[in-house]
């Protein structure tokens, strides 16, 4: 593995050349979390009750219950969101307690390293990870988002909603569908340097066509938060998402 550097829309970015994971963006605004250290071991606080100095909360819907928690001794530090097989609506979401701070129009870039240890097992079960507005019941109901998604067939999706246009596009490399892995972690990047042509990348390879996703929202509607969840509206389906890191950077 070699660390290399290049300019992406004027931002010098250092990355490793196997999975093209960014290791350092030279950007005015930077947030990064590898989920390492004692700050995570007390448990992720519940939505509506954030802990001072800690960015994340978890939203749990369902009595089984689904979980969002640090993976014990997870290599590199990991957080896991998991549904249970109880026949009920469930949501297990990780986000910034609706403290929206990432302005998509400022050249925002979201990057996560993740896998789906358990693929969504039934129709209606889904995973999403990316940037979104405030939590709402059901990821598809959110008014603004830029996300990767996955449903029961395991194929990765490119998802967007800017308040007017909604997209759900099969992520593909050279016409071949991209499937989320149950064992290997992959680098997922959403590059908003050009809001008229937002790029979605899987291990460094673009998986949506040029000009297929734009984000027309402006002002407060364009300010989002990191968001990752597994969700089902009903039934006994399951899914488990493991997240190794989440990074976000942008201009001011």
CATH class: Mainly Beta
Q: Main β-sheet, in a few words?
A: 8 strands, antiparallel
Strand content: over 45%
Number of helices: 0
The H/E string reads EEEEEEEEEEEEEEEEEEEEE
User: What gap, in angstroms, lies between the N and C termini?
Assistant: 32 Å
Strands, total number: 21
CATH architect. name: Sandwich
Q: What is the general shape?
A: globular
Gyration radius from CA atoms, angstroms: 17 Å
Helix content: under 10%
By helix and strand content, what is the structural category?
Answer: mainly beta
Query: Domains counted in the coordinates: how many?
Result: 1
Low-confidence stretches: none
CATH-defined topology: Jelly Rolls
**Multimeric status of the protein:** single chain
**Arithmetic mean pLDDT:** 93
């Amino acid at each position: 593995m070699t660390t290399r550097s290049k300019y992406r829309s004027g931002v010098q970015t250092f990355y490793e050349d196997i999975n093209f994971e960014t290791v350092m963006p030279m950007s005015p605004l930077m947030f990064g979390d590898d989920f390492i250290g004692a700050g995570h071991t007390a448990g992720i606080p519940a939505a509506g009750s954030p802990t001072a100095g800690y960015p994340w909360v978890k939203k749990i819907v369902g009595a089984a219950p689904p979980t969002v928690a640090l993976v014990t001794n997870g290599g590199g530090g990991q957080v896991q969101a998991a549904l249970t097989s109880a026949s009920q609506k469930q949501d297990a979401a990780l986000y910034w307690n609706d403290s929206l701070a990432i302005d998509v129009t400022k050249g925002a870039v979201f990057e996560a390293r993740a896998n789906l240890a358990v693929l969504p097992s039934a129709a209606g079960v889904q995973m999403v990870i990316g940037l979104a507005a405030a939590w709402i019941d059901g990821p598809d109901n959110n008014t603004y988002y830029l996300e990767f998604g996955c449903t029961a067939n395991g194929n990765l999706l490119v998802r967007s909603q800017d308040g007017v246009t909604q997209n759900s596009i099969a992520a593909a490399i050279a016409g071949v569908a991209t499937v989320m892995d149950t064992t290997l972690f992959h680098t997922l990047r959403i590059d908003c340097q050009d809001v008229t042509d937002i790029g979605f990348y899987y291990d460094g390879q673009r998986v949506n066509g040029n000009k297929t996703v734009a984000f027309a929202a402006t002002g407060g509607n364009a300010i989002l938060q990191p968001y990752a969840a597994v969700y089902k509206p009903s039934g006994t389906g399951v899914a488990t998402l493991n997240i190794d890191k989440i990074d976000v950077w942008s201009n001011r």
